[in-house]
């Protein structure tokens, strides 16, 4: 992924998003995508408790298997969150140029990052470093939240 990412706010309302992986990272990404009203499919042999709850509530679709190229075909946004090198390689080899890819478990395969963000008085505030300094981004987010709350 490039060192420079264009800050961009995008509507994901009814957009197909696929997450390869079913653990804690996938859970966090699914939460953000559902908040943005995306149509979320998780492809993983197993799900975290929270993802399983979302599946039972029909808030996400679950394909109980290892991800393959067929799972990527119609997704506008792909999230790599399995931690599995074979899955990461599959995504890197089979993604289309028009697809957005978040390499949550391997930033080098991605072309988009999820910023740390929060809402205050109807304004969304986001902080991002691409994906090379997540701890610093988290610190900046918390700092900005404290500063803005004091005003």
UniProtKB/TrEMBL annotation:
Q: Which EC class, in a word?
A: oxidoreductase
GO molecular function, a single term = precorrin-2 dehydrogenase activity
> Which of UniProt's keywords are assigned here?
NAD, Oxidoreductase, Porphyrin biosynthesis
Question: What is its pathway?
Answer: Porphyrin-containing compound metabolism; siroheme biosynthesis; sirohydrochlorin from precorrin-2: step 1/1
What are the recorded Gene Ontology BP terms? Answer: siroheme biosynthetic process
Q: Does the keyword Disulfide bond apply?
A: no
One Pfam family this chain carries?
A: NAD_binding_7
Q: What reaction(s) does this enzyme catalyze? A: precorrin-2 + NAD(+) = sirohydrochlorin + NADH + 2 H(+)
Q: Does the UniProt entry include the keyword Oxidoreductase? A: yes
EC number(s) from the headed UniProt entry? 1.3.1.76
Q: Superkingdom of the source? A: Bacteria
Q: PANTHER family this protein is in?
A: SIROHEME BIOSYNTHESIS PROTEIN MET8
NCBIfam families reported for this sequence: cysG_Nterm
Name of the protein: precorrin-2 dehydrogenase
Per the UniProt entry, what species is this protein from, by scientific name? Answer: Marinococcus halophilus
